[in-house]
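Working notes for the structural subgroup meeting. M.R. asked for a predicted model of this chain before we commit to crystallization trials. I am recording the input and output together here so anyone reviewing the notebook later can reproduce the run.

Input as submitted:
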Amino acid sequence: MGAQQQIEQLGQRWAQLQAAEPGIRIRNAAQLLGVSELELLLTRSEGVQRLQPRFGELMTALESVGDVMVLTRNEEVVHEVTGPVKGFKVSGSGAMGLCVGQIDLRVFLRHWRYGLAVKEQTRSGERQSMQFFSASGQALHKVYRTDATDQQAWQALEAEYLDLTPEPVVIEAEPVKPARVTDLQLDVEALRQDWASLKDVHHFDAMLRKHQVDRLTALALMGPAWCRPLYLSEPQVQSVLDVVLADVQAAACPVMVFVGNRGVVQIYTGVLERIRRTGEWLNVLDAEFNLHVRTPLITDWWLVRRPSTDGHITSIEGYNTAGELVLTLFGKRKPGEPELVSWRESVRRLESALCD
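Returned structure, recorded in token form:
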């Protein structure tokens, strides 16, 4: 069977699935059909165009269009922020991108392989986006035009970065995830000493690499002075996150919410106001920030303390069944500042309610 015939057949299968399940999201459709989201989009004859793989330049140029909505997700969590992409900078090597502001991103450009300009019809009219994918066709990051976006600037930017002679798309296999290690493979005392000697939370990942240990295993080995698992004591509450978000909401404590995948970490900082649960999903539905968390898929919650020159820095972290970090909350903080008193008070309440 030729490549074009395969594309046509996949498009037919997608159309049949949409007819059977109206409103199904493309990510769910791709999973049911056993393909990537990118492969599904490429079956469309209209409304999908390739973008040049100058992704760092494109992200930098987004400042010209004004407000957009950026979306980053993993299997368990969807993170959406509305605002301008200001001051996006690319590292000298081109491997990293950084944006700090209302839209706050850490971008790992080495994992960005394909980009698409997408137009699609929705109940509220045409929706326009620029979407970026890994070599395996997994969606890493999406940028949506909003009513506040400068439409003329958006069209000009899209036209500038369209790829009129794109290389063929070659879908690669998902990278094999490394196996979890055990404490028998580690010098646990050396790991604990290095943890206690941390001066900056940004050095944490380097410490894990030094000891060749995954994050969740390290937490389990540190002991309660540094790391404590969080459990529900009230059976009527659906998840640890319900308790956490209710506490910071009631205290009007500004938090930093981190969600990421292989290609991006997206951060929102602010007070959370409208929190709603719909079935398995716990949602934050604020004007500039939406968070959607499928809480049954997050199986491990930890309260984590790390030393720094600014005092202990505390996070609440959620992990999926594979031991991958999918959601992190900190109190609002800038380097050189201690944790907020309101965050530490919230942490103390949560520790009392959710720890053995």
